[in-house]
Amino acid sequence: MIDGPYFLLAVLGVLGTGLVAGVFCAFSTFVMRALAALPPAQGVAAMQAINTAATTPAFLSLFLGTAVLCAVLTVVTFVLWPDGGTVKLLLGSALYLFGSFGVTVVANVPRNEALTRLEPGSPETAAHWRSYVREWTTWNHVRTAASAGAALSYLLALC
Hints:
The protein is mostly helical. The chain has one domain. 87% of the residues lie in helices and 0% in strands. It is built from five helices and no strands. Helix 1 packs antiparallel against helix 5 and helix 2 (40-54) packs across helix 5. It starts with a helix and ends with a helix. This is Membrane protein. The chain crosses the membrane at residues 6-36, 57-81, 87-109. Keywords: Membrane, Transmembrane, Transmembrane helix. InterPro entries: Anthrone_oxy. Pfam families: Anthrone_oxy (PF08592).
């Protein structure tokens, strides 16, 4: 069983990755479906507003803070190599850093930036919207699974 500072870091890892998984899961299971059901101009405008709201300190603190925590857990685990939970701690960190944070940077953010440049009511936007929803949601499923897997891995490291 993990104890001392590892215990606190792992508990914070469970909490951070679990909360991010919940946010991403909400988008995968109903938010994107609701936006896709709207007329394209309204869906695009709503998603543009969501993307703006996501860059506020509340979400960025959670999302980026969890990435920093996972990086710290990785370094501390490699340096101190605890008796128990080593593989689970490293797996949890890798899942979040690559599957959640990394996918966000290389797949979701570029799509969001492209969407930001579109005018909600234009014909080009209507054509782009359907593929945006499909591709963005697919990558969001990956982020959801990776974040949930990270939370589970950290939780198992505590046992």
